[in-house]
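Could you help me review a protein record that somebody else here produced? Here is the record exactly as it was handed to me:
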Amino acid sequence: MSVLFITGTSTEVGKTVVTAAVAAAAVAAGRSVAVCKPAQTGVGPGEPGDLAEIERLSGVGGGLELARYPDPLAPDTAARRCGRPELTLAETASAIAEFDGDGLTLVEGAGGLLVRLGDFTLLELAQQLGAPVLVVAMAGLGTLNHSELTTRALSSAGVACAGLVIGSWPAAPDLASECNRIDLPRHTGVGVVGAVPEGAGSWSRDRFTAAAPAWFDPDWSARLLWPNSDRPRLNCPK
């Protein structure tokens, strides 16, 4: 099994759609894929959450959700507010490790890298499992600062960064977006390995799955989806 964590530089940057796109690209390449969302917030029992959206877009179902809380807050806060136990690092790492033994397991976080999913952050979970983290970033103003903060935190923790993906690339990008796409690798030391068109989350499954593989750098996709070794050669900030 290989695990790839997907985080964002903040909330609402397109993590779920990017997760669906990576899943669709992996399936198109012939890879077995499983998706895990450790903690889902802001939805009630029986309501569709992020895993349902990933399945709708990519066709990859049967995902693993470990905890669900009704308030749209950070998972640890949402757990305390509704009187439910928080997830623990040990139980979450064990559940992911046992979830799918053969293919690629995508693990979507909540909010940004240091949001607490329970008594731990996604960064600590990635450390525990020794897995790389793909960072979803905005296109516009503010993304250079947010992206560098995130990639520096990964580097300081010794966690590999699998690249940056722009979660919503505008149909008519402004000057800031165009410059940011060039400047992001220079500021972070990490390559922009993909960009998802804005509005792609509203597409039909057929349209989405047909287009998704082309949103990622082909060399990056090949190393991630069919690495020659157990771990792709990843580009980390210095």
